DNA sequence: TTGTAAGCGTTATCAT
DNA sequence: ATGATAACGCTTACAA
């Protein structure tokens, strides 16, 4: 590996001059610049990032925490983040928290040791009190996640509107018995409160009372979706429509419904959330709420980088738009 | 951030002694060791990885190159790699090549600058001559990818057997007109030659001649699958079965077949490759070849780490088993 | 415009 | 068993 000294030696100049060329400092004669550039090329020279980092200069790596990368939502988000980061000459250190608090803390420590310059968290497991102390070592931002107690940038979509659109769509179609799944609890705080609010709001506007036996909490996977459908059919009073928290749950619901001999949407209408490729694979194709995943990742990187460059981002709390995509499950 | 000097100062010992404690050197009195450990704890000391790296010591990051992380196959693979790496105290720097040769070279350079200690490539864009020179900076291994000209470890599944099983399954069901999709070319070398071989072998054994108009090359996505199905229906002589190169292509084929009013498997039987969650979402559920993705990622990390520790891995070229999963599309 | 030298946090070598 | 010191590759005062 060629070092800066090799370049200096080859050109007969000092390390400082070479460094200045590398870092695009002003006040360098054109001829020496050319000379240095030629030498760097010849030697295949690349600055050593560890040295730069140690010296307190250049930042180049951002960390991204996802719960599980195999979840398509997060893999799409990561794809967008990596791409945007790369365009800005940043690399991405990727972690799965696996919904494990200790692992999350381990990652946060990487900020402390400057392994990463900043952190994008797409989900958080610990509470804010645990995370807050790490913010003094580097910027941490939330993307997709929401923490009401935190005061750091959060990139998110208008979840309330998403849930509202879904419920409203059902109501417009004449449904009044509308079930609801959430990944968290049906409570007034927590990350799902916005969606809960949207759902409630639409019902309220239409004068439809809430039926607690149609609310399903802590649902995430395809299997959960199947289970929900099984539970629904056991109810005395069956809902005619269900708004699931994700396309995955929706998939489970639809698969199970068909297995039970039910017709979608005639017997039960289904709306998902995310608009993943699987939405098109399902039969009937899934009506769902589209999240602007690509935009979310892009925005997250932009905000983080502007924080790293000490310039305040224009908007630290952008709220990205959601959209109802009507297909055949409603 | 506390440094080693802070610890030295607090204990009244030298940096050397502290360093020895950190690195578990022998010949340290129990009492000083305790003393140092206590101080490190108090200060919340963490060794600075950049410094260690610069000093040519400790390694802790592996790089993983995938084509597109949003592709479920690769997101599952990455999930497994990250998890295994974490269990071994390694971090994962993740890159998407986006099938771009230059970006790939950029990543390879990270090995040169010791940003990553080793590299797992799950697909390669450049040819071996371009990649080979980088192997002198650190171990590079292939996982899922195969390069006949290379002599580095390759973790892969028995692709030949996978394709053979699929074709054989069709034949056993009485099919003789069996179409085939590949991500590459239908040639004697290249990454898909093993699958091509398996397909041909099964046909040959059954005395079925190859029909070139049923061979589709360079197929990858759902859209490609739809296109293939459209092309098939235009043929004078229609195949009755198709072995696609991935579950994604299979999804496209099935979706399009239904749109064209064809019944799967009655009018056309379909087999995918991978066994992704989407295989269960499709209607009919997809018969497919299951790859042991989790095992692949795990094995890849194990081999890479043993290379990093200079110990030869027991088996540098493991070939993992595939399996036919019969569902309703055949 | 260019060069000299100090220092970032570690660990290895050489003393003691 | 412990300590002093140099070196890893880089950037940045400061000097010239």
Automatic annotation (TrEMBL), chains A, B:
Keywords: DNA-binding, Transcription, Transcription regulation
HTH lacI-type domain mapped to chain residues: 2-56
Ranges in a coiled coil: none
The keyword rRNA-binding is assigned to this record: no
Presence of keyword Membrane: no
Entry-linked CDD domains: HTH_LacI, PBP1_CcpB-like
Top-level taxon in the UniProt lineage: Bacteria
PANTHER family per the UniProt record, alphabetical: LACI-RELATED TRANSCRIPTIONAL REPRESSOR, NTD BIOSYNTHESIS OPERON REGULATOR NTDR
Protein name: LacI family transcriptional regulator
Taxonomy of the source species: Bacteria, Bacillati, Bacillota, Bacilli, Bacillales
């Amino acid at each position: 590996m060629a070092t800066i000294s090799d370049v200096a030696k080859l050109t007969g100049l000092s390390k400082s001059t070479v460094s200045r060329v590398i870092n695009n400092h002003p006040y360098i004669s054109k001829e020496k610049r050319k000379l240095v550039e030629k030498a760097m090329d010849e030697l295949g020279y690349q600055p050593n990032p560890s040295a730069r980092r140690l010296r307190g200069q250049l930042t180049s790596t951002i960390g991204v925490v996802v719960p599980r990368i195999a979840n398509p939502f997060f893999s799409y988000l990561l794809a967008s983040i990596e791409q945007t980061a790369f365009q800005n000459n940043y690399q991405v250190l990727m972690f799965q928290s696996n919904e494990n608090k200790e692992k999350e803390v381990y990652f946060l420590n990487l900020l402390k040791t400057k392994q990463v310059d900043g952190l994008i968290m797409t989900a958080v497991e610990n509470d804010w009190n645990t995370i807050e102390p790490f913010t003094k070592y580097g910027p941490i931002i939330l993307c997709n996640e929401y923490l009401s107690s935190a005061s750091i940038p959060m990139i998110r979509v208008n979840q309330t509107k998403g849930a509202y659109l879904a419920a409203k769509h059902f109501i417009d179609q004449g449904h009044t018995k509308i079930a609801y799944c959430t990944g968290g609890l049906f409570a007034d705080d927590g990350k799902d409160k916005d969606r809960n609010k949207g759902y409630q709001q639409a019902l309220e506007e239409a004068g439809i009372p809430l039926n607690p036996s149609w609310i399903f909490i802590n649902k995430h996977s395809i299997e959960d979706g199947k289970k929900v459908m099984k539970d629904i059919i056991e109810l005395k009073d069956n809902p005619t429509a269900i708004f699931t928290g994700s396309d995955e749950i929706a998939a489970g619901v639809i698969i199970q419904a068909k297995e039970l001999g039910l017709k979608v949407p005639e017997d039960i209408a289904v709306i998902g959330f995310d608009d993943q490729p699987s939405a098109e694979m399902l039969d009937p194709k899934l009506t769902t709420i589209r999240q602007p995943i690509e935009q979310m990742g892009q925005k997250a990187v932009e905000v983080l980088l502007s924080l790293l460059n000490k310039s305040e981002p224009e908007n630290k709390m952008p709220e990205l738009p959601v959209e109802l995509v009507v297909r055949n499950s409603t």
